């Protein structure tokens, strides 16, 4: 390092010119590149501002939302939206969407289902101890039996409601009514018994039911499904 004209000059020892090994050539190239960095940075210039500039002025999101709500409240639109949401919620509870693909029984059908399943993975307890290994086959009816028949029907059809009443009386009330359409609340109030709903068609798909009324009962270690004609 040598002072020169008030500036500091770096002098880097470079490999001799007669050193022609590949390593020496690489080192020489790197040192030359490093030596040029200070001189390049020293000649940086300010290019100024290109085009107009604007200050950042973005409204606060929470304040924006609150203002919109105040505007809607002042015009009455907010109360209208609240009433519409409440009415939709009440309607969805009183009369859920009917199960798609289910029709009134036109041709009576009967079949049985073997509910036996096979575990696809190990079942362990909270301590990691193996309870049931993968590959275990089990029929749930060996553990718990179907205490009541399952009766699926559409409460929007008066004929099906009447047929359901007949079947419930035939089996001394040991029937669990499950709707695929209509208002379970209204029927429960009229019959004074619990009435259920096949949410999103989960049970009818599992049993393969396409027509209602349909009755599911236990027959030995299998389940019997009867799609019953309406009168």
Folded structure, characterized:
The longest helix has 21 residues, at 22-42. The chain has a domain at 103-115 and 141-227: 3-Layer(aba) Sandwich (Glutaredoxin), CATH 3.40.30. Strand 13 (214-219) and strand 14 (222-227) form a beta hairpin. Helices cover 35% and strands 22% of the residues. The protein is flat, with a radius of gyration of 40 Å. With 231 residues, the chain is an alpha/beta fold. The relative contact order is 0.13. A six-stranded mixed sheet has the order 4-14-13-9-10-11, covered by helices on one side. A two-stranded antiparallel sheet has the order 1-2. A two-stranded parallel ribbon has the order 3-12. This is Type-F conjugative transfer system protein TraW. InterPro entries: TraW (IPR014114).
CATH architecture of one domain: 3-Layer(aba) Sandwich
- What name does CATH use for the topology of one domain? Glutaredoxin
**Beta-strand segment tally:** 14
Strand count, sense and closure of the main sheet? Answer: 6 strands, mixed
- Mean pLDDT, nearest integer? 81
Radius of gyration, CA atoms, in whole angstroms: 40 Å
Strand content: 15-25%
Give the strand line-up of the largest sheet.
Answer: 4-14-13-9-10-11
The level of helicity is 25-40%
Count of helix runs: 6
């Amino acid at each position: 390092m040598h002072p020169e004209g008030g500036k500091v000059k770096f002098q880097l020892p470079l490999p001799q010119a007669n050193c022609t090994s590949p390593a020496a050539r690489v080192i020489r190239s790197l040192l030359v590149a490093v030596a040029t960095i200070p001189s390049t940075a020293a000649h940086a210039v300010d290019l100024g501002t290109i085009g107009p500039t604007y200050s950042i002025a973005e409204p606060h999101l929470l304040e924006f939302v609150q203002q919109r709500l105040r505007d809607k409240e002042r015009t009455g639109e907010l109360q209208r939206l609240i009433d519409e949401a409440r009415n939709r919620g009440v309607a969805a509870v009183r009369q859920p969407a009917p199960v798609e693909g289910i029709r009134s029984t036109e041709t009576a059908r009967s079949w049985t289902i073997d509910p036996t399943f096979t575990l696809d993975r190990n079942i362990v307890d909270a301590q990691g101890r193996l309870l049931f290994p993968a590959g275990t086959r089990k029929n749930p009816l060996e553990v718990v039996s179907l205490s009541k028949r399952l009766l699926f029907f559409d409460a929007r059809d008066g004929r099906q409601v009447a047929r359901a009443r007949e079947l419930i009386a035939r089996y001394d009330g040991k029937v669990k009514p499950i709707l695929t359409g209509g208002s379970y609340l209204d029927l429960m109030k009229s019959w004074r018994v619990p009435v259920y709903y096949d949410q999103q068609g989960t049970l009818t798909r599992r049993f393969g039911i396409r027509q209602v009324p349909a009755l599911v009962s236990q027959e030995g270690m299998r389940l019997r499904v009867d799609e019953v004609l309406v009168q």
